[in-house]
Amino acid sequence: MLATTSKHVEAPERRTEYASFEVRSLTPHLGAEILGLDLSKPLDAPQFRDLQQAFLDWMVLVFRDQTLNRDQHKDFGRRFGRLHSHPMHKGGHRGSDPEILPVITEADSAYTAGDGWHTDVTCDEVPPFLSILYMSETPECGGGDTLYANMALAYELLSEPMKAFLGGLCAVHDGALPYVGAYGSKPPEGGYPRSEHPVVIRHPNSGAKILYVNSGFTSHIADLSRRESRALLEMLYRHIAETPRLHCRVQWLPNTLTLWDNRCTQHHAVWDYYPHSRRGERVSVVGGKRPSY
Ligand code: SIN
């Protein structure tokens, strides 16, 4: 008998009441808009505590009508920890500030960053645990949304034998895959980072099991044959891309800021607005330990 692919997973009891702001969920499983916070000003301790809780509860938080300069964007990121320096910056690509990743697509762009399901920078030994994207310009024709996927739910929806099999595996995440293969950049001296992480990790706060391979960075599964690795990754990537209940969709407006938990989500920027432009900047935060089970 085949295991069902439409397994019911009850929508978790996620909190919607916070003292410091209002929350409007995007889906029962992932994503919420936060109303009533001005991120250009330092948050007080109760506001920040509520925000950290909402971040753990909803994984993707959207803030509208925020007017932030670059320093305020970085200061907001620093509340969570140390700012990440992007590997492409080392090679002289991607702007002048190592802590700011420009996310810019124009008519003559050869690619749009993040145009495929991925988790940010999993090639790093300790990847950023949180990213904050601030959008200043959205396409005139509309579009340019970002899709997010809940990777704890992605794990939960797998069959029990598949979970058991994946539990013993590790995968290699290689920065050359996106940065050279997809974006055509010249690697820095010593090459882009390459790291091995378990295929299933645990969220350090909730302990939830998370499917941790992504089509952006994962080159192969260690100890499997090339054919086995390719088939398994392809099945998992289809599971992530073709299971709509894992997803939420963030529609950007100018001055929207979105914050996501980079341990338990993936995202996909949709380039459906050619020849129009979209401009934003991303700050990411590192801290804690390597992803582990
Ligand atoms: C990214 O952080 O991968 C970019 C996402 C986006 O542009 O929507």
Quick overview of this protein structure:
This protein has 293 residues and is an alpha+beta fold.
Ranges with pLDDT <50 over ≥5 residues?
none
Coarse shape? globular
How much strand content do the residues show? 25-35%
User: Roughly how many Å apart are the termini?
Assistant: 30 Å
Bound molecules: succinic acid
Structural class given helices, strands, pairing? alpha+beta
Number of distinct beta strands: 16
Integer count of domains: 1
Question: H/E element string?
Answer: EEHEHEHEEEHHEHEEEEHEEEE
- At CATH level 3, the topology is Double-stranded beta-helix
Task: Write structural notes for this entry.
This protein is an alpha+beta fold and 293 residues long. The protein has one domain: Clavaminate synthase-like (Double-stranded beta-helix). The protein has seven helices and 16 strands. It has helices at 45-58, 70-78, 87-90, 151-156, 160-166, 176-182, 226-241; strands at 22-25, 32-35, 60-63, 82-83, 101-105, 130-137, 146-150, 170-174, 194-198, 200-202, 209-211, 218-221, 247-250, 256-261, 265-269, 278-286. Strands 1, 2, 3, 4, 5, 6, 14 and 16 form an eight-stranded mixed beta sheet that branches. A hairpin with a 6-residue loop joins strand 1 (22-25) and strand 2 (32-35). The chain binds succinic acid. Succinic acid binds at residues 103, 113-114, 120, 131, 133, 146, 267, 269, 282.
